[in-house]
Design brief:
alpha+beta; Immunoglobulin-like; TIM Barrel; five-stranded antiparallel sheet; 6 helices
Length: 335
């Protein structure tokens, strides 16, 4: 059966669903040969969908595919024969278990996955606690909940949710979470590869055979202050990794129900695309009702962030801009 496609919505990066259509938008030049590759994790069936070269605007390619079943599917983009992860993927498949050493068997590969839950926020509203009344408590989800009081699911959002009453009794109004977006905790050594233009065929006697000595496991980046998948919840922080999105939303909802706030720490490298930064902040506010961000990293678009309409009621913590540039004062609203 032929796959039904049409030109996608370039305004929505990554993946989104609109009725029977699933929209994929990603960076790719007009001249690039691009595919969306979906794999069913149960059957192993691969669906490779070519993106027509006519589907482009600037450096974006976009395609909408009809009647896709997203349950148990993972995906990536293929550009000129190279596998490319979606930087806007809402979930990551392959890091469900913290520091999973068996991933070495699959070269530590990960793929994008889909979030299909429809979370009911009920009558939840943001507390919007005045800055002068805030009592902040910074914590690491895994570290803070690994003790015996973590109940049955230590190291998870669910365990932290069970500690909200305790935090409230301490007088805490706002929790600041160290990175809870997807990041690679295993510090994988880079693989050296010769360029394609170098042809090297060593003689057998010159080859060095692999050593039988066991190699050390990769070190662990416990804290997460590295470049990551900025649109996905850290699956290994959830009691049910496939439902990490819903579990994190339930945590934030319970915080709000207790008149408490959630601020996310976000680390961005200096060379990050500023458009991606704004898209990510919009996403967490829109989809997860996050109350604020502590932004870390250099060369961030702070002026654009503090002037952004969607973020106008969001708490922004970060390095104060240089003198003469924009401050936290919001610009006048459009009439």
């Amino acid at each position: 059966m032929k796959t039904k496609i049409k030109e996608g919505n370039y305004a929505k990066l990554g993946v989104c669903q609109e009725q029977e259509w699933t929209n994929f938008t990603f960076c790719g030049e007009k001249e690039d040969q691009c595919y969306v590759v979906l794999t069913n994790t149960i059957t192993g069936t691969v669906n490779r969908i070519e993106v027509p070269q006519a589907y482009y605007v600037g450096s974006l390619r976009s395609i909408a595919v009809a009647d896709l079943s997203l349950e148990d599917e993972e995906y990536y983009f293929e550009i000129n024969g190279q596998k490319v992860m979606d930087p806007c993927a809402h979930a990551i498949m392959g890091r469900y278990i913290w520091n999973d050493k068996t991933r070495k068997e699959h070269d530590y590969e990960v793929c994008g996955a889909f979030v299909t839950d429809t979370f009911d926020w009920g009558n939840e509203t943001a507390p919007e606690i005045p800055e002068g009344e805030m009592v902040m408590y910074k914590l690491h989800v895994r570290g803070f909940t690994m003790d015996a009081d973590g109940r049955r699911f230590p190291g998870t959002f669910l365990a932290l949710k069970n500690k909200i009453t305790y935090l409230k009794k301490l007088g805490v109004t706002t929790i600041e979470l160290m990175p809870v977006y997807e990041f690679e905790e295993m510090m994988i050594p880079p693989v050296s590869k010769l360029p394609d233009y170098i042809q090297w065929n060593p003689k057998e006697e010159d080859q060095i055979l692999p050593s039988d000595e066991p190699q050390a496991d990769p070190k662990v980046n416990y804290w997460g202050y590295v470049e990551g998948n900025y649109f996905a919840v850290k699956a290994s922080y959830a009691s049910k990794p496939k439902d990490a999105s819903a579990e994190y939303k339930a945590l934030i909802k319970k915080l709000h129900d207790n008149y408490m706030e959630c601020i996310m720490e976000m680390f961005f490298p200096e060379d990050i695309d500023h458009n991606l930064v704004l898209e990510a902040l919009h996403y967490w506010v829109r989809e997860y009702h996050v109350d604020g961000f502590h932004l870390l990293g250099g060369n961030l678009p702070m002026t654009a962030i503090v002037q952004d309409n969607m973020l106008s009621r969001t708490k922004i913590l970060g390095v104060r801009p240089c003198r003469g540039s924009a401050t936290r004062k919001r610009r006048k609203r459009w009439s």
